[in-house]
């Protein structure tokens, strides 16, 4: 008879402890420990990956051509670094309803239509419901296997029996292993199922995608545990109400991270947005104060996007500040730079800063754009509509060079912009001929003189 014991897991990082603690010693989060009952097995824990028999010389190890399966969805292929790597395990995270199942069903359709064997395992929807969704997103010409099951053993057997090239587990939170007594979705279950899928994927050269819902704190249950176990982590971002969805690579053992894919949720599934800059700038107000266009490098791709700021005298004790799509603390910091170095009286003003289109940007190159949007709204003077802005701003008010200057300028020129406000240090480096008027600035004061 296997013995049961109680252990406690941190729901943030998956740290395991034999007693409850207020603060997790690993990730320092408070109140994250949850109780779980686990059955002790003789071997103790999940089996690890089958490894080679003995140590080998690196020169003797042969690599077959790193095989990639193109998904037929270019935006996804780019985020993955050129297609799905055979035998890899990937995690697709995101809020419920953002479109994870839809995207993966579309991938299954494309692969099935190109004569590859795929298996879609769902623990959330019935065959009937999946079929209804499949009918919305288009025709399936070839056979695709569907399986509705939540038991880990049954799933593993099904995969081993059918031997697909590509399998989807939708979602990790609904799957459970009989060996553990804790509920589906608990840290130990999520870990166990992921480890089992890792073995299935690597030992049989099957590419497996796991869907994971994120909690309201924005993380998949036991995120660190999952993220270090899988090869690739993709997150689906965006507001459920907004049309655009952004797929971001957070970890990728076979390619660069930071790449993004932009999609639009339509009546017939997710549609790729081929020119995000153009789409994001659609319907931009002309000659309005507080509106500027910035250029941010997302992976290898420059994306132009509008930042809007609204600064108005406050009627509250404490001025209100909000930031949507941009780091709130960064906005506060840049406002402090404007107060201290330029002397704008922002202390008595409410300030709202938004990024259009439901995008989230974190690149420091948008600093100068945020500063100029705030100043433009404060002074109520618009910035010429044919201008794009990029540059990093330091605490002393200096404007620092950013990488990828030429790529940014090229993208702006393609979309018909005529003037670019950029760090002086970048102007000195640029070698390409351009029709754009490049206005170099070396500090915030110089930039604000242009408004
Ligand atoms: P879904 O893929 O089920 O989300 P997740 O698996 O991440 O929870 O996305 C479902 C949402 O997308 C739902 O609100 C309906 C909408 N939708 C469309 O707008 N068009 C479509 O063609 C499909 C299939 C779904
Ligand atoms: Mg789903």
Automatic annotation (TrEMBL):
Pfam families attached to this UniProt entry: AAA_25, ChlI, Zn_ribbon_LapB
Keywords, ordered alphabetically: ATP-binding, DNA damage, DNA repair, DNA-binding, Hydrolase, Metal-binding, Nucleotide-binding, Stress response, Zinc, Zinc-finger
Residue ranges constituting the RecA family profile domain according to the UniProt record: 65-214
InterPro entries named in the record: AAA+_ATPase, DNA_repair_RadA, P-loop_NTPase, RecA_ATP-bd, Ribosomal_Su5_D2-typ_SF, Ribsml_uS5_D2-typ_fold_subgr, Rubredoxin_2
Motif (RadA KNRFG motif): 251-255
Lon-protease-like: region residues: 350-451
Binding of ATP, residues: 94-101
UniProt family annotation: Belongs to the RecA family. RadA subfamily.
Free-text comment about domains: The middle region has homology to RecA with ATPase motifs including the RadA KNRFG motif, while the C-terminus is homologous to Lon protease.
Function field: Plays a role in repairing double-strand DNA breaks, probably involving stabilizing or processing branched DNA or blocked replication forks. DNA-dependent ATPase involved in processing of recombination intermediates, plays a role in repairing DNA breaks. Stimulates the branch migration of RecA-mediated strand transfer reactions, allowing the 3' invading strand to extend heteroduplex DNA faster. Binds ssDNA in the presence of ADP but not other nucleotides, has ATPase activity that is stimulated by ssDNA and various branched DNA structures, but inhibited by SSB. Does not have RecA's homology-searching function.
The protein's name: DNA repair protein RadA
